[in-house]
Design brief:
The protein is α+β, with helices and mostly antiparallel strands. The chain is built from 3 helices and 5 strands. The chain has one domain. The longest helix is centred in the C-terminal third of the chain and has 16 residues.
Length: about 90
């Protein structure tokens, strides 16, 4: 399954010029990358840092597109569960 989190405020910088973003994440890397490609995201935008949720950042419009293509809207609780799982997997 592929999920989109809720929009959150962020500070624009040289890598991200928008004031809001959300995360696109999935049960597997394969699902995530295939879905990201389907909605026009570059593989180089994938973020997978130690102890953090493997994800792509989405703009408001890309979030709408992801939902249109079948991503499931995730609340903060579900996203937090995936973050905890990523941290646990990193320790293993």
């Amino acid at each position: 399954m592929v999920y989109v989190g809720l929009m959150f405020e962020c500070i624009p910088n040289r890598n991200w010029r928008w004031e809001t973003a959300c995360h696109l994440f999935a049960d597997t890397f394969q699902e995530l990358h295939e879905f990201a490609e389907k909605i026009g995201l570059k593989r180089g935008w994938f973020q997978h840092e130690k102890k953090h949720l493997p994800h792509y950042d989405l703009t408001k419009n890309k979030r709408k597109l992801a939902l249109r293509y079948g991503a499931i809207e995730a609340d903060r609780k579900l996203e937090a569960e995936y973050i905890r799982k990523a941290r646990h997997d990193f320790k293993s």
